[in-house]
Design brief:
single chain; alpha+beta; Beta Polymerase, domain 2; seven-stranded mixed sheet; 11 helices; 7 strands; 61% helix; membrane; transmembrane; cobalt ion transmembrane transporter activity; magnesium ion transmembrane transporter activity
Length: 350
């Protein structure tokens, strides 16, 4: 064997070992329900098809940061379309619901507040078959413990199978929307108070920066939440929930929550626009006030200027016709000018 072939095999072995290490570091979670009861957890990916063959079963498998080998295994286990697998390698799709023969592909986004003003979003891709739900996402994008607790709280609905799993997933995601929007709302309220809290008449640069951070956060929320109305509406069609009509009220409630979140996002955008208009109005009012003050000072200064200019200082005064008088008047001009400059600068007029 040549040296180049040995080096190539060594690199391939190292890459395979690295992928295996990543797979072990990131835990894969799974659940199997049968007859509405939880019967198995944390089984390997290769067992999905076996559990799907069981009567009255529903399977969930969580696959964070999947490797190409895992995606190939997933395609073989569930018979997924190659385009659906391609979406799992590019987790930057818009929220949508794609339909393929025998399965659906759900794209949604989890959002979390960052520093109270911006939102961090991460895509969650769901492969939905009649008996399985597989979630694919970046590591850390989904809290599987919180998701499983949410399903456990709705254990009475587990008898509905995969529609129950999808509902629990989306309900958990939408609940996160309200938490994020509440954080943005609180931050806007704080900003509304801050724009009136100025030091010495100066506008707060931090308040202005916060305004644009909030704008980015609200834009992220709009891009993520608004399309979810179409996604949930598509899931409510008869070919999806028609077989489980008892679950329809829950999807209707979920749709109502998405509408509320979308309306709240629009209200926050309008509120932030009002805050920005208020900032501009305050700036305009402050400028008018400064102009009035400067005009007043100019009028005061104009009086001695006019008098001394009219007479030309040709009348005797202390220091008249002496070098000391010249330096005294020059010093007074410089001192008074410096005092006026300092006073104007302190009030942010210059």
């Amino acid at each position: 064997m040549s040296d180049s072939a040995e080096v190539e095999q060594g690199e391939q072995a190292a890459a395979a070992a690295g992928q295996a290490a990543v797979g072990k570091a990131i835990r894969r979670r799974s659940r199997a329900y049968q007859g509405g009861r939880l019967v198995a957890e944390d089984f390997p990916l290769e067992m999905i098809s076996e559990w799907c063959e069981a009567e009255d079963s529903a399977v969930w498998f969580d696959l964070p940061d999947p490797t190409p080998e895992e995606l190939d295994t997933l395609r073989e286990e569930l018979g997924l379309h190659s385009l659906a697998i391609e979406d799992a390698t590019h987790l930057r799709q818009r929220p949508k619901l794609d339909r393929y023969e025998g399965h659906l592909v759900l794209s949604a986004y989890r959002v979390r507040p960052v520093d109270g003003a911006e939102l961090d979003s991460a895509m969650v891709l769901g492969f939905i078959t009649p008996k399985a739900l597989v979630t694919v996402h970046q590591a850390g994008a989904v809290d599987p413990d919180a998701l499983t607790r949410h399903w456990d709280d709705l254990a009475d609905l587990a008898k509905f199978g995969v529609p129950f799993l999808v509902y629990g997933l989306l309900d958990n995601i939408v609940d996160g929307y309200f938490d994020a929007l509440q954080t943005l709302d609180d931050t806007i309220e704080e900003l509304s108070d801050a724009i009136f809290d100025t030091a010495g008449g100066r506008e707060s640069a931090a308040a202005l920066r916060r305004t644009f951070e909030l704008r980015r956060g609200i834009l992220t929320a709009r891009h993520v939440i608004s399309p979810m109305r179409e996604v949930v509406n598509a899931l409510m069609r008869r070919d999806w929930t028609g077989q489980v009509p008892d679950l329809m009220p829950y999807y209707q409630d979920l749709y109502d929550h998405v509408l509320r979140a979308a309306d709240w996002t629009d209200n926050l955008r309008d509120l932030l626009g009002t805050v920005r208009e208020t900032q501009l109005t305050i700036q305009s009012n402050r400028m008018n006030l400064i102009m009035k003050k400067v005009t007043s000072w100019a009028a005061i200064i104009a009086v001695p200027t006019a008098v001394t200019g009219f007479y030309g200082q040709n009348v005797p005064y202390p220091g008249f016709s002496t070098t000391g008088g010249f330096w005294t008047s020059t010093g007074l001009i410089l001192i008074l000018s410096a005092l006026l400059y300092w006073s104007f600068k302190r009030r942010d007029w210059l």
